[in-house]
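re: ur question from the group chat, yeah i did fold both. here u go
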Amino acid sequence: MDIEKLYKKIQTLNDILWDNRALRPFIGDWLKNFREEEEREEALFLLSKCMYFGHSSIRALLRELYRDKYRSTVIQEIREDYDGTMDGEIIEEEYKKRLFRTRFLGVGNPSESGVHLLYYFRQENKIPRKLFINTDELFAADCGEEVKLSTKHKDVDRIVFIDDLCGSGSQATGDSGVRPCVEKLRKLKNAPKISYLMMFGTSDGIEVVRNATVKGSDVKLFDEAEAVMEMNESYKCFDERSRYFKEEEQELREKTRDMAYKYGKELINNIIDRDYHKKLEDERRAKLIEHRALGFGNCQLLLSMQHNTPNNTLPIIWFDEDDTVWTPIFKRYNKVYK
């Protein structure tokens, strides 16, 4: 392995794309985590393959998200409703009406990345502030068993959830994600169209969201789930179809996987009980560690963003815990629940 060539590639990425997040002294500190020289070489190889999206790239992706995944969809619906019209005035007038009957929501609580991105999404696309709300603003209070939209939002017919990444799909479909809000919306007599739009999404995760249904029924949770950048199996670092290893590098792929898994397992082992707020049974504990040792949901990503590094990325890249001696190269700002 040509180490100097790897360093030169990383330096170029660092200068042009990575906002100087991986200067050589930082790389040196990160490599000290690994016990063997061969492991340090393998780690450096993985770093040279990382995708990092800085501030300007994130803003550009949010413009694409609005243009390609929201606006173009609405315009296509307008054309279909108006016998295929190409009249720009008709389309724009109707588009404004439909935009004002849309509400944009973040994924997670107000401190999380999905909500944080709404600020830039609104700025970049010049969308009126009143179209951005929290989930608790949607529904009327004190309406008994019947679910109703609040008076302020009673004419809303489209709900759009915005997220940075859909990795395993659990954020959109799990009980602690947006599911409670969506299931409540599905109880409305005239439920609005519900979209889940993201900058990045794994093919598997997007499929999970598209197939998710309301509990106890076959009614789909979301009418659509789309990503600006859909990442297929080739973005899964150690998959046989991985884009990061050449045909003749399969032995390197297996060795590097073993290294990343060994350290990832050790790192997740340190925090798994804390994350679940209790001492887990051995069998469940082992399954959860396996599920996360190469990134949450076994996503095996090499992805970082200006505002955070997702836990779907290999833990050896981002792991940073107060009670563990491990220096990350792209830091992750973990959620503190208690």
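okk and heres the other one u asked abt
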Amino acid sequence: MIRTQKNLVKVVNNKIDMKKNIALMAGGNSKEADVSLRSAIQVEENIDKSLYNVYKIVLKGLDWYYETQEKKYFINKDDFSLTIDNTKIIFDGVFIIIHGTPGENGLLQGYFEMMNIPFASCSSLVSAITFDKVVCNAVVRELGVVSVSKNVSFYKNNQMTVEEIVKKLNFPLFVKPSEGGSSIGMTKVKQKTELEEAIKTAFDVHDRVIIEEFIKGRELTCGVMQSRGEIIAFPITEIIPIKEFFDYEAKYDGSTSEITPANVEDKIRIEIQETATKIYQGLNCKGVCRIDFIYNNERDELFFLEVNTIPGQSAQSIVPNQVRSMGWSTKDLYSRMLEEIL
């Protein structure tokens, strides 16, 4: 069923409630579900309640539900509606904060596109492209705006041998599942004997693996969004992990330093912000994306890492820190995101 019905007007105390109904999609079916739920707390608290009625919809398996202290109310997926106490709620827009599948790989976006319901993030096609590291690297390389590390990739049913890999790439290497976030399943490999186990770890997450040459340098990341007719690049953050690399634990256990704004020369800052903007435009991104880079000082060269189409939004996350650094509040950020789709 294609949804074309507009928002139901509610009457409260003889006053017409013209606020828009927003579904905040959280949870998901990956190991990042807990991260998503933490992000959802921040978003729910900071969406402007004078403009929007916010309903946090938790997605867990095939169950999509809104929960109060008394009861769970399940979404009718035929028209993406919610019925509470015999009142049917139709949503004007969707704010997706699901990391991993199905919120970051395009599956959920495809559902909302079929339902004709606007959502504040990239399209299903762009989400699918950016979520697959092999495809995204190839597309970004074709844009010709930034260097991409040399890599190989293969599927579980058609694997390269260790000997074939070492002939093509130089150590150290990063072995990653082609799809997935938060560095889950990723291993840094320094020697040939470690490759086989690292590949197995990556295949536990996804049936396609990408192996990249390690680029030594500073990890720098830049949020980008389209708002009010212009594309805005946020202040840059430098990520300084205490561990070997920015793995899942380092992202969320507080052991990593994240410096915003990054202490970099203006030349580097401008290059990163301009490159992030070109990638955002070249991929036809929407909403807020975070684009990660490595800057190699010895070669004075910027390398692309990845595009995050649903970046974390917890109070400690990188993008909220970036927008606060440039004088916005997170309420300003979320209002602009919803303004774009409504």
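fwiw on the second one: Confidence is low (pLDDT under 50) at residues 1-16. The two ends are 22 Å apart (CA to CA). idk if thats what u expected
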